[in-house]
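Hello,

Our lab assistant flagged a job as stuck in the queue for most of the afternoon. It eventually completed. Since we weren't sure the result was trustworthy after the delay, we are filing this so someone can double-check. Below is the sequence as submitted and the structure that was eventually returned. Let us know if re-running is recommended.
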Amino acid sequence: MKELDAKLRAARGEVKSEAGQEPRSGAGIGPGMGMGVRVGVELISGIAVGGGIGYGLDRWLGTKPWLMLVFFFLGAAASVLNIYRAVHGLDDSVGLGQAQRRKSK
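-- returned structure --
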């Protein structure tokens, strides 16, 4: 079984180093890189969605540029809140207070 395990690890690209470190996956993306990508996507998508909604409402209602500015800042605030929740490991509960209470239990 050990020989089969060694062959499977070699085929997947997971090799345990001599220093006793954990095996690395072949993809090269660790948890820190994944969190960085998630933070970037959260930031860009929140601002883009907020700005897009504001732009669309401005064109429809003829209130240029006020609604775009309002929704841009609302999207930025939502992005910052989502990043805070992701970094602190809060779950996807509705409302930040509920997520913090659930985590503290």
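-- support follow-up --
The delay was a queue issue, not a problem with the job. The result is valid. The mean pLDDT is 83. The chain is about 70% helix and 0% strand.
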